[in-house]
Every structure is written in C-alpha cells, then in structure tokens.
C-alpha cells in the first residue's frame, strides 16, 4: 500500500468533498480517499503508486484543480 497527498484548489463545501472523493475513489487500485476541506488536501491510499496525471484527471472531472507540487 502507498499513500500520497495532493493539494486541490477550489473546494469550498461538503459537496466538493463528496465529488472529489467519488471521482478519485473510482481510480482502479484506490482503497481509501480522505479529503481535508480546510487544508485543501486529498490523501489517497492505493495498492501501488498512482500516476499523477490519473489523479489530476479525476480531480478535473470532479470540477476542481490539482495544484502542481
């Protein structure tokens, strides 16, 4: 298992959290998604390291922006 934390811009409410959690959670291999609304962070636990482009696409699909590290 591996865990990675990403900064997400644009989340402001519980609906935002649910949208991001749903989209990122649908990525194959993802076992857990934790969203910290106040910090604007998404922590993803997966079976293997994820391609950042895959996470970016899921966050984009939810309507938000992944902040480049």
Automatic annotation (TrEMBL):
Example of a GO MF term: copper ion binding
Source superkingdom: Bacteria
Occurrences of domain HMA (ranges): 2-67
A family per Pfam: HMA
SUPFAM superfamilies for this protein: HMA, heavy metal-associated domain (SSF55008)
Alphabetized InterPro entries for the sequence: Cu-bd, Heavy-metal-associated_CS, HMA_Cu_ion-bd, HMA_dom, HMA_dom_sf
GO biological process: copper ion transport
Keywords for this protein: Copper, Metal-binding
Protein name per Swiss-Prot or TrEMBL: Copper chaperone
Species this protein is from: Micromonospora endolithica
